[in-house]
From TrEMBL:
Keywords: Flavoprotein, FMN, NADP, Oxidoreductase. This is Oxygen-insensitive NADPH nitroreductase. InterPro entries: Flavin_OxRdtase_Frp (IPR016446), Nitroreductase (IPR029479), Nitroreductase-like (IPR000415). PANTHER family: NADPH-DEPENDENT OXIDOREDUCTASE, OXYGEN-INSENSITIVE NADPH NITROREDUCTASE.
Length: 249
């Protein structure tokens, strides 16, 4: 164990921040750390939009499902998969790159690059004593989010990252057992073993919620997941992504 591992192992989402903005230096450090993340073939297929306009933050909060911490934080970042600059590069170099840009492979590269950059940003923020919360809710209404942020073709807002000084810390939420997610040499396909592991995890999660809510909540992980998954959500996504000029081939 060391300081870095302790930081990673103690992550938890923060959903209540002090009314204190990040400094320009903090913002630049977080972005530079994001840029230092690994990137496939050096493609760097992402952009980050820092939202400081309070009216825009309020609108994003509304679009994300009225999550107050989208509007009230130290700084709000929106991470976008971005292949627009690569189209521009093709024009600069007089090369036809459109088929590649529109491929599923490059779409996946852009998603992965963006996620890696965002996680670097999150860890950097936490190392500065700040709290973070990822906001997938901006994908509820991407058409409106894109208009608000004026994102061009081949740029896809993926998620937000609320960062700030924690006003309230939640308990660390237990993750799945290591044995359930780590497979050695090949994927283990033992349904009985898997079910037993999930049941043990259900017990852990239920106990966590009972302690956290003084007995008002005791649901399990599998019940949470099935309730979420049986509700179809954001089913417009494939069509919207393709409208941006991504994932067409």
């Amino acid at each position: 164990m060391n300081e870095n591992i302790n930081l990673l192992m103690n992550h938890r989402s923060v959903r209540k921040f002090e009314d204190k903005p990040l400094t320009r230096e903090q913002i630049e450090v977080i972005v530079k750390c994001a840029q230092s993340a690994s990137t496939s073939s050096f493609i760097q297929a992402y952009s980050i939009i820092g939202v400081t306009d309070q009216e825009k933050k309020m609108k994003l909060s509304e679009l994300a499902g009225n999550q107050s911490y989208v509007a009230n934080n130290g700084h709000f970042f929106v991470f976008c998969a971005d292949l627009s600059r690569h189209e521009q590069i093709g024009e600069m170099e007089n090369k036809d790159v459109i088929s590649s840009i529109e491929s599923t492979e490059k779409f996946m590269v852009a998603l992965i690059d963006t996620a890696l950059a965002a996680q670097n940003a999150a860890i950097a923020a936490e190392s500065l004593g700040l709290g973070i919360c990822y906001i997938g809710g901006i994908r509820n209404k991407l058409e409106e989010v894109s208009k608000l942020l004026k994102t061009p073709k081949r740029v896809l807002p993926l998620f937000g990252l609320a960062v700030g000084y924690p006003a309230q810390m939640t308990d660390k939420k237990p993750r799945l057992p290591l044995e359930h997610v780590y497979h050695e040499n090949e994927y283990r396909q033992n349904n009985e073993e898997s079910r037993n592991q999930l049941q043990l995890y259900n017990n852990i999660i239920s106990e966590y919620y009972v302690a956290r809510t003084n007995g008002e909540r005791n649901d399990t992980w599998t019940s949470q997941m099935v309730n979420m998954l049986e509700k179809q959500s954001r089913m417009y996504m494939k069509e919207f992504v393709q409208k941006t000029g991504m994932n067409l081939k």
